[in-house]
Structure formats: structure tokens, C-alpha cells
Amino acid sequence: MRNFALHLRHCQKKITKTQALNFSTFACPVLQSQDPCLPIQNLQSRRRALVNLLQLRVSDQPIWYDKRMHAQVVVSGFQDDVFLANLLLPSYTKSDSIVYARKLFDKMPEKNSVTWSSMVSRYTKHGNDEEALVMFSEFCWNSDGKPNEYTLASVVRACTRLGGVDQGAQVHSFVVKTGFDQEVYVGTSLVDFYSIEEAKLIFDGLRVKSAVTWTIMISGYAKCGRSEVSLKLFNQMRDTDVLPNKYVLSSLLIACFALKFIGGGKQIHAYVLRRGTVMDVSVVHILVDFYTKSGEVQAGRKLFNIIVVKDLISWTTMTAGYMQNSFNREAVKRFSEMARLGWKLDGFGCSSILTSCASLEALNHGREVHAYAIRVNLVYEDYVKNSLIDMYAKCDSLTNARRVFDSMADHNVKGRGFIPCNDGGDIRTRDTLERTWLASCFNQQH
């Protein structure tokens, strides 16, 4: 490959234009050859070629590519080159290749802050939080370098996931001593780590707050039932240039619902429209859920109708809203549309629709749901069977109720606590069901 350098420059231009292409298919055929050495004799040129190849690497490369690049570094005599090693470490990005990254790290005779930070980040990225904390501790003791804000943020997240209060406090102390307490990534991680009151102190001390920082605080107070504080923080957020994301909106609407502050939810809706925030489908789902839970079914329906491409969440959110407000006929109609379009309910959704059919005493619709449950293999779930029994009983179809009851594998446990609780249908049906239940109990005892 006499024109290897030219080929490499061509690859660099090509990968810039087409990032999604798999680099290994065209960028370095030399890696697939039997010759372990690059066809470049000059060491300086060879090192430059290796640097270019490592910098060109894309994230979806197979592990064999990483190993061969590593081999090229070794056979070229650059195994002690810290710069090349630091380029190699991030290439082992997949969870099954972290062990190779650790072997490379352990064999490095010299390590700088980039080396240590890369390993800490690798561990936290793949959920090896304990290893990340051990590596960070060794970093602080054995290196003259200083971790950057991204490394510190990942270490704090590791402490959060482990529930390591003492470790987190020590890392926080280190953050303050090294002057990273005002860095937005570190501050956001610390806010997420501490309890809500301690987090508020850190939050108030941050000069720059990101959307993630605001989200953590607003959602944190909403989850703790401190709805008033969530809304107060949102008012403060409105005075900044930070736009609320879907998580902030969700938390605020939860807070408004908890306070029964429907007007507040409408104000948030208007604010989103006024600020020009893109109304993606997830935001619409949140608003539909809020309006229907608050009894504003018509408002929820209008939002549902503006969704151009409705997914399963769209349909189930609107259907649940109808059922919560006893719009049973509309709920059953939505189910029919979902089934026609090929959307699949889970067992809970199917059970809820059967409850609506029972309330309407809509036997034909109930039979359709029963057929659907058989078709998608939901009929074997106990709560679906219980809902079927209730639906048939309330629709005065005792024969079908008994058939479903008899088909229950463990009806003496599951069904017997359910059937006598039937409060629908005529007295004759209920009495017959109760006699069936009592007989099943008697047979079990003898």
C-alpha cells in the first residue's frame, strides 16, 4: 500500500461526509490483512497514521477492530506512548470490552489525568460504580493531575446510584477544594445526590443552572409532595433563558393536579405555547393525562385529536381518561379503534375495558374484548378472567361467567374472592353465582 497516506486522507474526508457508515469497511483494509505492521517504514509517519486512525474511529466498530488497532500500536513499538494509549482507551466503549481497557490501563508505565479520567468514565458509563469509586480514589492518591468536571460529575452519579452518603460527601468536599463547585455538570450531579433540602442549598449556590438542574429540583419537590415549592421554582425558571423540558412539565402538572389547581395546568399549557416550545408527542401525552385526570375530558380530547401519528401511549392515555371519568361508551369505542389499527393492550388495559363494558352492560362489546383477549393470549391472566366474569355477570350472561370461572386454574383462590362481590346484574344471577362460589369452597374443604 504505497499510497496508504493518500488513502487515509481520502477516508478522513469520506467519514466526515458520511458519519453513519461503518469505518471498518473502507477506512483501514490493512487491519484485515495478515501483515501485522502498517506499510509505513518511517516511525514518525507510522505514529501519525495510527493517531489519525484512532481519531477517525466511530462508535459502532466491532471489538476485533479495537484489538487490531491495539496490536498495531504494540508491534509498531508505541506501547509506552501515553497519547496513543489515551486514544485507545475510549475505543473500548462497549460493556464487554471494559476488561481489555483495564488490561491496557494496567500495562501503561505512565498515566496522566486523561488516562485516569477515561477509566473512571468507562466504569460509570457501564454501571460499574464501585470500580469507578476505587479508580477515582487511586487517581487522587497516585496522580499529580486533577480530574475534570465531567469525571467528578460521573463519580457523584456513581455515589448516587450506590447510595453512598459518606463517599458522596467526601467527593463533594473534594469538589469544593478543587474549585469545581460552580461547574454546571458537577453542581447538577450534587443536586441529584442530596436530599431535597440539602440539594436546595447547593442549587441556590449555583451561578449557572442548566435545564437538568431545574428539572431535578422541580421534580424532586413534586415527588416529595411539595407542590407549592415546585410551582414557585417554575416561576423562577420563567425569568431565565432556560426552557422547560417534558420532565419539568410532567412534574409541574403532577403538582397542579395534587393541589387541584386546574388553572395552573392551563397556565403551564399556555406558557409552553407562548414560548414556542415544540409540542412533541410526549408533551401532548402529559397534557392529555393532566386534563382527563382533572375532569377536563373535552380539553384532553382536543389535544388527542391534534396528534398526527398516534402511538400506543396516545391511545391508552385517552382511553384511560375516558374510563376515569365514566365515559365508558367512548372508552369502548377507542378500544375498537385500537384493535382495528393493530395496537395491543396489556392485561391491565384489557381488564379496564371489560370494566367499562360491564358498567354499560354492553354484552356484545364485552364479547369482542373477550375474543381479542383470546387472540392476543391475555385471556390466561387472572385479572382479565376476573373482569370477564364480572362483565358477563353484570350483562346477565351466567353461562359464560360460569365457563370463564371453570377455566380458571386456581379459581378456588382467585375467583372465589371475586364472584360474590358482584354488585351488578339481577339478584337471581348474583344468588346463583354465590351458590357456585359456596359449592366450590365446600368441595375444596372435602
Summarize the amount of helix as a percent range.
55-70%
Broad structural category: mainly alpha
> pLDDT under 50 segments (min length 5)?
1-38, 411-430, 440-446
Number of strands: 0
What proportion strand?
Answer: under 5%
Determine the number of helices (DSSP H or I, runs of at least 4 residues): 24
- Outline type: extended
N-to-C SSE series? HHHHHHHHHHHHHHHHHHHHHHHH
Largest sheet: none
CA-based gyration radius:
31 Å
Write down the oligomeric state.
single chain
> What is the CA–CA distance across the termini?
88 Å
Report the mean per-residue pLDDT as an integer: 74
Structure description:
The protein is mainly alpha-helical and 446 residues long. Among the domains are: 110 residues; 82 residues; 103 residues. Helices cover 68% and strands 0% of the residues. The chain contains 24 helices and no strands. It is extended, with a radius of gyration of 31 Å. The termini are far apart.
Question: TL;DR?
Answer:
By secondary structure, the chain is mainly α.
Task: Lay out the secondary structure.
Blueprint: H1 4-17, H2 43-56, H3 63-75, H4 82-88, H5 98-107, H6 113-125, H7 129-142, H8 149-162, H9 165-177, H10 184-193, H11 196-205, H12 211-223, H13 227-238, H14 246-258, H15 262-275, H16 281-293, H17 297-306, H18 312-324, H19 328-341, H20 347-360, H21 363-375, H22 382-394, H23 398-407, H24 427-445
Helix pairs in contact: 1-2, 5-6, 6-7, 6-8, 7-8, 8-9, 8-10, 10-11, 10-12, 11-12, 12-13, 12-14, 13-14, 14-15, 14-16, 16-17, 16-18, 17-18, 18-19, 19-20, 20-21, 20-22, 21-22, 22-23
Organism: Prunus armeniaca
GO biological process, one term: RNA modification
Keywords: Repeat
